[in-house]
Amino acid sequence: MVSRVDPWSAMKVGFLLSVAMGIAMVVMAAVLWALMSAMGVFDSINSLASQIIGDAAGQEFDIMDFLGFGRVLSLSVVIAVIDIVLMTALATLGAFLYNIVASLVGGLHLTLTDD
User: Fold this and answer.
1) Does residue 88 sit in helix, strand or coil?
2) Measured between alpha carbons, how far is 42 from 65 in angstroms, rounded to an integer?
């Protein structure tokens, strides 16, 4: 029977798992950006924007001003850090809430077998 979860342990495990997910998210953003660049998505968007805007505007639109590799990667790092903080806090809060509920209803009964 699981009647108590140590909040400190839940915080450490939550932190490590969220760091791993944050690293995976940054790598995923970099790979996705490189894949879209290799496929020519950004060039297609630039040509479509120049057709829509036209040459009369006097300005040339470049999607890389908004979606450059450095900007995308730095934004994904910022989001990853925010997710790390939030997921660690939620894991710790979940452990506290589980302990409160387990004290009221007796905990979670687990049956483990060795097959």
Assistant:
1) helix
2) 11
